[in-house]
């Protein structure tokens, strides 16, 4: 029992927590691009925060359920629909055998996360269920989901739905401020170019994927060339290759690289960047390590607060209706809750 993929959407991947402890062997950490959306989706369905979800880009998949389950959808709004009826983001829904989840089109953001109560039954590879495409590793057979794929869902018991209070729902702007810590090779740029980096508005180019986001804008010049002895690359590292355009390294980044890194985006702000699309604007703001730690603590405190304040309710009756208004037909869900 589980769920069948009727339409794969665009780059629908099984992603959850990162693959820890293997970068020393050249294996990228991978995992969800948007940490916040992953964790909230799982909280809404009662899972461990880093249980694997489906991460979909721009065009969501169509999924037919063959068992009772509970789902929640967070992150970018791709227009989720249940049996052809628009449903809300950031709340859970009990689904039954025969129900179909689909998506009408992107409204904001670009990456959506679909969590399933109990989780997805795929092998744990090197400590994670997450997919690393280039290595054909993890997830569903190491690849993106395709039509006719069948996902085994782990057992879910219960009839309690959850909804996230509106104050915790993130908004995605077309201009993204990225707080960043200087280094580790900021000494390879003069003060003029560092000032250019923090005062410029950059644009996300079409060359943006799970490995990295290339930006266009004012070029950053090096003092003595772009090359260094290869060293480790963190999630959010901002490389400046010889062409002078920044590249922000993302979840599927390589483990080491030989280009100078002028700064590193703080982990909390990478969630915002993960929802950025080509054409969106990016600005950098300098913070020090102490401020970054304070921001991270506030972020983790908010997630703990969400666990304590999430609204739970039970749907005791659900009906689907077709309504005609001014010659336009609508399909709606009517829920009786307790």
From TrEMBL:
Signal peptide (UniProt feature, chain positions): none
Single annotated GO MF: hydrolase activity
Classification via InterPro entries: CT_A_B, Cyclophilin-like_dom_sf, PxpC
Pfam families registered for this protein in UniProt: CT_A_B
Every Carboxyltransferase domain range: 24-302
Keywords: ATP-binding, Coiled coil, Hydrolase, Nucleotide-binding
Coiled-coil boundaries: 289-316
SMART domains: AHS2
Family annotation (Gene3D superfamilies): Cyclophilin-like
PANTHER family: 5-OXOPROLINASE SUBUNIT C (PTHR43309:SF5)
Protein name, UniProt field: KipI antagonist
Species this protein is from: Paraclostridium benzoelyticum
């Amino acid at each position: 029992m589980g769920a069948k993929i009727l339409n794969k959407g665009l780059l629908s991947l099984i992603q959850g927590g990162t693959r820890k402890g293997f970068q020393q062997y050249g294996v990228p950490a991978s995992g969800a691009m948007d940490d916040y959306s992953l964790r909230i989706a799982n909280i809404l369905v009662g899972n461990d925060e880093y249980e694997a979800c489906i991460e979909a880009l721009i065009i969501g998949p169509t999924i037919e359920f063959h068992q009772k389950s509970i789902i929640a959808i967070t992150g970018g709004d791709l227009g989720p629909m249940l049996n052809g009826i628009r449903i809300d983001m950031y709340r859970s829904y009990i689904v039954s055998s025969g129900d179909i989840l689909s998506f009408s089109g992107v409204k904001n953001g670009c990456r959506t996360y679909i969590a399933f109560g109990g989780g997805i039954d795929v092998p744990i590879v090197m400590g994670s269920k997450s997919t690393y495409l280039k290595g054909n590793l993890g997830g569903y057979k190491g690849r993106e989901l395709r039509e006719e794929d069948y996902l085994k869902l782990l057992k879910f018991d219960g009839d309690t739905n959850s909804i996230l209070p509106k104050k915790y729902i993130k908004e995605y702007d077309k201009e993204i401020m990225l707080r960043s810590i200087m280094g580790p090779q900021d000494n390879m740029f003069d003060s003029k170019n560092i000032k250019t980096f923090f005062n410029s508005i950059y644009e996300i180019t079409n060359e943006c994927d799970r490995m990295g986001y290339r930006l266009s804008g004012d070029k950053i010049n090096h003092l003595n060339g772009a090359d260094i002895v290869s060293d480790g690359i963190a999630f959010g590292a901002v490389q400046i290759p010889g062409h002078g355009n920044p590249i922000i390294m993302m979840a599927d980044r390589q483990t080491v690289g030989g280009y100078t890194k002028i700064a590193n985006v703080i982990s909390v702000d990478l969630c915002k960047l993960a929802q950025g699309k080509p054409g969106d604007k990016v600005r950098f703001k300098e913070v020090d390590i102490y401020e970054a730690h304070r921001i991270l603590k506030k972020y983790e405190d908010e997630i703990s607060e969400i666990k304590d304040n999430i609204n739970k309710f039970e749907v005791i009756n659900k009906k689907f209706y077709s309504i005609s208004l001014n010659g336009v037909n609508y399909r709606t869900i009517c829920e009786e809750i307790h």
